[in-house]
Amino acid sequence: MEVLNSIPVRLNSKEVLKQLHMRKTNTDIEKSVQELIEITRPIAKPKAVYEVCYVSNRNWDSLDIGGIRFTSRVLRINLDKIERVFPYIATCGRELDEVAVPSHELVKSYCLDIIKEMLLYSARSYLEDYLTRNYGLGQISEMEPGSLESWPITQQKELFSIFGNVEDLIGVKLTEHFLMIPVKSVSGIYFPTEIKFESCQLCSRERCSGRKAPYDPGLAEKYREGRR
Ligand code: SF4
How many domains would you assign to the chain? Predict the structure, then answer.
């Protein structure tokens, strides 16, 4: 297991303002963003932890990863021909919990939220690059528990059990409802793949701002039949 806790923090007001996706900004918003960047940049510590695990005991809709049983047909199909995978958890870090924004300052709260999202994005892309370089991987894909019906969020428990005390390692806590604190955290399994996989390809939800690939009903049918 390896913890990555020296992830570079690159925050600049131009990028934060862009990520706000506001039609118009004004000097007050620009000032708030600049103030927040000055407060958060010195204390922000995005982090990630990953483990190298091997896949075994594949069945119709379950498999073992690092000796832990996971139940998901889609995950099993994606890892059918893969031996080595990389379970991970990445987070914006708890350090920004110390930054207090009065509840009536809605725009400023939103800006802080965006900054946390950007830190999470940095942690995740740093981890992806790190895995790709250090393990000689080509293209990688990933799956997250809770992103599809086929891999319910309750399986966060199994995923977290791979790492032991995640709160001690990177400050991420799993609630009894399987949500992560800080909220700007993400967990899943990276795996090498020749054909890029996105869970969104199997998800028919309309109007999702997080969609990364179009819904593919033909592919979804194949997965339902147990093949790809
Ligand atoms: S379309 Fe949206 S809800 Fe569906 S898997 Fe993608 S991000 Fe998740």
Answer: 1
Q: Ligand 1 centre from 208 Cα, in Å?
A: 6
- Quote the pTM value: 0.94
| pLDDT (tens digit per residue) in 84-105 | 999 999 999 999 998 989 889 9
| Residues sharing a CB contact under 8 Å with residue 180, sequence separation 6 or more, in sequence order | 89, 91, 156, 172, 173, 174, 186, 187
Q: Which residue CA neighbors atom 5 of ligand 1 most closely?
A: 200
Q: How far apart are CA 53 and CA 131, in angstroms?
A: 13
Q: Evaluate: CB of 211 within 6 angstroms of ligand 1.
A: yes
Structural domain containing residue 174: 2-197
Q: Is the CB of 153 under 6 A from ligand 1?
A: no
214 inside domain: no
How do residues 177-225 score in pLDDT, each as one tens digit? 999 999 999 999 999 999 999 999 999 999 998 899 999 999 999 999 9
Atom of ligand 1 nearest to the CA of 148: 5
**Quick check: is 125 in a domain?**
yes
59 inside domain: yes
Asked if residue 82 has its Cβ within 6 Å of ligand 1, the reply is no
Please give the distance, rounded to the nearest whole angstrom, from the Cα atom of residue 104 to the centre of ligand 1: 31
Q: Is any ligand 1 atom within 6 A of the Cβ of residue 91? A: no
Cβ count within 10 A of residue 206? 7
